[in-house]
Specification:
six-stranded mixed β-sheet, about 35% helix, about 25% strand
């Protein structure tokens, strides 16, 4: 693994370190994309880390895109629901959840969904691969409706747009620079890349996001990107913030062997 890179460049002078309220601890998890194996390993690592870090009011935030691309989206949804039943887990809706839900009724969205990993999502449910391959779009919508439980669809519909805790704003993709966080559109929060990624000004909070894949965690003065591409690079990342401290937990897949890497952000 490469070392964490800070991207400071010609950015403005740094603000005071961001913090969350005393007595709280937050773990934010990047895009899972159907990698149930990495997710399960990271859940165990977070539980262990939280137990070893002393008493706190702990919140886990999943930054969206639980589904698509990887092999077991249905399993990830089930695991997230089970974890949420045991502790405070809040989930942000990503653009892939948006496409998944809209694909049941909209064939144009279904085409887009299938081009971006939807096939893997659908085949993680009890849909016969041969029937999938032979189906046209209306037939595929019928297969989806029969195979994907309504409770899963309803569950995805409960996911949140964004969460503010202390000096941090947690969302899926990012925000439109120059627009107050409370006024951001749903599409922006789920889909934006530019001008958010290259913007150097302060957003009113440190934005913690996924969506845009980077080989390493991106730490800038105004944002922290933690989508390390679990389905491509085999690394699923969680950022832990407590007081003014920031640290990382990563589940890393090396040819099928999953290990946990812990590091601080200096």
């Amino acid at each position: 693994m490469k070392s964490i890179r800070k991207f400071l460049g010609s950015e403005p002078p740094p603000l005071p370190p961001p913090e969350i309220p005393a007595g709280q601890r937050v773990y934010a998890v990047g895009d899972i994309h159907g990698r149930l194996d990495l997710f399960e390993a990271l859940v165990t690592a977070i539980e262990d880390d939280d137990a070893q870090s002393g008493a706190a009011e702990t919140t886990v935030i999943l930054l969206g895109d639980l589904v698509d691309r990887g092999p077991d989206s249905a399993g990830v949804i089930a695991a997230a629901r089970q974890w949420q039943a045991r502790r405070e887990v809040r989930i942000i809706v990503g653009n892939h959840e948006e496409m998944f839900l809209e694909a049941f009724a909209n064939q144009d969205v279904l085409r887009q969904f299938l081009r971006h990993g939807g096939r893997e999502t659908l085949l993680s449910y009890p849909i016969d691969p041969a029937a999938y391959a032979a189906a046209d779009l209306p037939e595929l919508q019928a297969l989806m409706a029969a195979a994907v439980p309504q409770e899963d669809r309803d569950y995805l519909g409960t996911f949140e747009r964004g969460i503010t805790i202390g000096d941090y704003f947690f969302t899926h993709a990012g925000i439109e620079p120059g627009i107050p966080i409370d006024n951001q559109s749903a599409r922006t929060l789920r889909w934006i890349r530019e001008p958010f990624l290259s913007h150097k000004g302060y957003h009113g909070a440190i934005v913690v996001h996924g969506h845009s894949i980077a080989e390493e965690v991106e730490v800038r003065s105004n944002r922290i990107g933690i989508n390390t591409g679990g389905y491509i690079h085999g690394v699923l990342t969680a950022l832990c913030v407590e007081g003014t401290s920031q640290r990382l937990l990563q589940a890393c897949d090396a040819e099928g062997a999953i290990s946990i890497v812990r590091r601080t952000i200096a």
